[in-house]
User: What shape does this take?
Amino acid sequence: MNNVNLRKAAIIGCGFVGAASAFALMQSGLFSELVLIDSDVNRAEGEALDISHGLPFAKPMQIYAGTYDDIVDAAVIIITAGANQKQGETRLDLVKKNVGIFKSIIPEISSRNCRGILLIVANPVDILTYVALKLSGFSENRVFGSGTVLDTARLKYLLGEHLGVDSRSVHAFIIGEHGDSEIAAWSSVNVSGVPLVDFCSMRGHNRPDEAMERIASDVKNSAYEIIEKKKATYYGIAMSVKRICEAIIRDEKSILPVSSMQRGRYGLDDVCLSMPAIVGKDGVETLVPIDLNYKESEDIKKSAETLKKILGEIL
Assistant: This one.
C-alpha cells in the first residue's frame, strides 16, 4: 500500500449502513482520520458532527464531511452508497439503479489514482464488486466486497446458540452469493476442530440434519426478518466492515469469506462471490480452498450462474 495513510479511511454513502459503519470505526480506534462523502452534503456533515461530539469519550480522531479530493491517500475506501429496494421493484431494477450510482462514484476514485483498497458494501454486493472492479481498473486483490462475512457471523451465532458454545469457537462459512442462492458449507463446519455432527452428538442433539436445515434457512432469511421488524439492517454489517478493516490495517491475514474475483477454482470464473480468503494489507492475498461435498460444489456453480445471468443483463 504505497502512498496511503494507514490511519485514514473514507466512507462513501452516509445512509444507515454508512453512518453505522462510521460509528463502529470510530469506536474501534483503527483510524485517526475518517472522511464521509454523500450526495447529500448536509447528511454527511450531520453524521460527522454527531459522531465527533462523542470523541471526548473515545480515542482522538478527525471525522469530517469531504469530497473525492480528500480520499486520495485513504487506506480503505468503503462504498455503502446505493438505493434501497422499493415495494413492487424487482431485484433487477435495483441492480440497474445501483450500477448507475457506481458509474458516477468509481470513476471519481480511479481518476484520482487512489492507492487504497476498495471495500464494496452496497447491495447486491457481488454484482457491484464486479462492476467496481471493471470500472476502476484496479488490480483484483484491491477490490472486494463484504460478501458473506455477516451471513457467516449469523451462522456462527445461531450455531453457538444451538450448541451452547461460544460462537467464536465455531468455524463455519456461508459461501457463494450474498443473497438467496448462498450456501452453508456444512461439510467443513467444526467446533474447535471437532466435526459438527460429533459435537451435536456430544451436546445431546441427535437430529443434526433438521437443525442444520433450520439454521441455514434462518441465516438466509435474517435480513428479511430484521427489515420487516425495523425497516433496515445496519449494525451487523457495520461490525462486519470494522472486522474487515481490522484485517487490512493490522495486516492480520485473517480468513474471511469476502466477495472477490474467482479464477477457475470450483469451476468458477470471471464472477465475484464469497469464498474464504486471506485478507491483509494488500487486500485479498489468496483464496483458501475448503472441502465441499458434491452438492455444495454444484450449488456454488448454480450461485455463480445466478450472478452471471444478472451481469449479462446489465453489462
